[in-house]
Amino acid sequence: MFRTRRLRKTENIRRLVRENKLSVDDFIYPLFIEEGTGIETEIPSMPGINRYSLDTISKELDEVVALKIPAVLLFGIPSKKDDEGTETWNDNGIMQQAIRFIKKNYPSLYVITDVCFCEYTSHGHCGVIHDNDVDNDATLVNLAKQTVSHAKAGADMVAPSGMMDGAIAMMRESLDNTGFANLPIMGYSVKYASGFYGPFREAVDSAPSFGDRRTYQMDPSNRDEGLREATFDDEEGADILMVKPALSYLDIIRDLKNNFDRPIACYNVSGEYSMVKAAAEKGWIDGEKVMMESLLSMKRAGADIIITYFAKEAAKVLMR
User: Does the reported pTM lie above 0.85?
Assistant: First the structure.
């Protein structure tokens, strides 16, 4: 009789036959940077995650570097907003300041920027509003301006999160035409209109003031549509394809892994983080074990890159 348990008997044999392994090299750590001074404010729905101003963020960045986390994903929180989110292409805006600060003081960190408008618009939607909905093509014009501004500030990669049709093509063209042909794009290629984003919207003050985002983010019911969306990004020149959220969409991660010859990323979003934290605080689960099991499930599904608020905690576990 073949006994599968023979290869589970000791920790050493389990290590030898382990099919998937997490590494700190898999992680991107999101950071929330707020315009102003003296800001270091914990986000109530995301224990352990703070909003920082540039004069307080060095301690956080020191720890990220010490843990050998290779990359950060920046989200800017401006002091003023308007209907179009014009601060996104202000060359002295909070995102642009943050890029320059990190590249100057932490040159080993790979800096990825969120390219979107929801944090910067007075209405909280991801672009220009016409007839109570986001105007796709008008938003693309502004997206190009934002992209080039981030590139000029020194970003290593740009990542458009708004799910506008044609975004990758517009960004690729604008970068190529302004001397940034070598700057990569990580597409939020398959992004669902998910209930798991709630804590993030508190973190960056981006809840829509009317309606929701279902006209431009994907229906959670749809799987095949994810392949169509990823195909468009692939054909338009995205260098990395991302699935967001991660845990409820592991099948989509595997679909992309099986069908595209590109690195596949996933975003372990705020609600997924906060649920683990809340249950662990109540003593209902072992938070560390669930954290590592969740991250491993994303890796097993096919993710090459994991964007996660757990990056620092998981890196410490992996160092033991």
Answer: yes
